[in-house]
Specification:
This protein is mostly helical. It folds into 2 domains: 100 residues, no CATH class; 73 residues, no CATH class. Helices cover 53% and strands 7% of the residues. The strands form 2 sheets. The protein has a two-stranded antiparallel sheet. A hairpin with a 5-residue loop joins β1 and β2. α3 packs parallel to α5. The termini are far apart.
Length: 198
C-alpha cells in the first residue's frame, strides 16, 4: 500500500488555492479597487441607500471547473497544472465582472442614473450629463474623490477624446466648472443635513 501524505497534500492544495485566488484578483482589473464584504451565510443581501431606498437581491452563483484525465497525469508538469488553474481563474473573473456590471447597470437604470446616448457617439456632453445624474463626494480641500469611469474597451479612444475636449474647449470647460461648483454645494448640503440628524 502506498503512503498517503495527508499534510503534504493539504499544503500543496493551500498553495494552489492561493495561486488561483491571486490570479483571479489579477484578472479582475475592472472591479479590483471596489470595496468588498464577505458574507458567510444567508440567501441574499440588501443595500440601504442614502435616499432611503432598500435594494434586495439574491446571490448569484459563479463557478468554474477544469478536469485532468488519468491519461494526462503521467506527463503533467507543475506548469501544466498552473496553466489550468490560471485559465479557470480567468474564466471565474470574467463571470464575476460580467455579473457585477449587469447588476450595476440594472440598478442604475432603475434609479434613473444612466445616460442613454440613443446611438450617438460618446462626447464631452456625455460626461457632463453623467456627472449631473450622480452624487459626488469631495475632500476637505474641495477636490472630488471616488469617481471612476468604467467603459468597454472599444470606447476608450472616444472617452480620451471627450476628456481632452472637456479641457480644451472653453465653453465645455466653463460648463464643467459650473457643474462641479453645483455638485460641491450639493455635497455640503448633504453633509450639513447629515450632521443635524439624531
Amino acid at each position: 500500500m502506498l503512503p498517503d501524505f495527508v499534510v503534504l497534500k493539504r499544503e500543496i492544495n493551500e498553495v494552489l488555492n492561493l495561486f488561483m485566488r491571486r490570479r483571479f484578483q489579477y484578472y479582475c482589473t475592472g472591479i479590483q479597487d471596489i470595496p468588498k464584504e464577505q458574507l458567510f451565510e444567508g440567501t441574499g443581501m440588501s443595500i440601504h441607500r442614502a435616499s432611503g431606498d432598500v435594494d434586495k437581491s439574491s446571490f448569484i452563483q459563479n463557478s468554474t471547473e477544469f478536469s485532468i484525465s488519468y491519461d494526462e497525469v503521467p506527463g503533467l508538469s507543475l506548469n501544466d497544472v498552473l496553466d489550468k488553474l490560471d485559465k479557470a481563474a480567468k474564466n471565474m473573473s470574467d463571470q464575476v465582472q460580467k455579473t457585477f456590471y449587469l447588476k450595476m447597470n440594472e440598478d442604475l437604470d432603475r434609479m434613473g442614473r444612466t445616460v442613454d446616448q440613443k446611438g450617438k457617439p460618446f462626447t464631452a456632453d456625455t460626461i457632463l450629463e453623467a456627472l449631473k445624474s450622480i452624487h459626488i463626494d469631495f475632500d476637505k480641500d474641495g477636490k472630488h474623490h471616488g469617481l471612476e469611469l468604467h467603459t468597454a474597451p472599444q470606447l476608450q479612444d472616444a472617452v480620451r477624446k471627450a476628456f481632452a475636449d472637456l479641457e480644451a474647449d472653453p465653453d465645455l470647460k466653463r460648463r464643467h466648472e459650473e457643474l462641479m461648483i453645483q455638485k460641491r454645494e450639493e455635497y455640503r448640503a448633504r453633509e450639513a443635513s447629515r450632521r443635524l440628524v439624531g
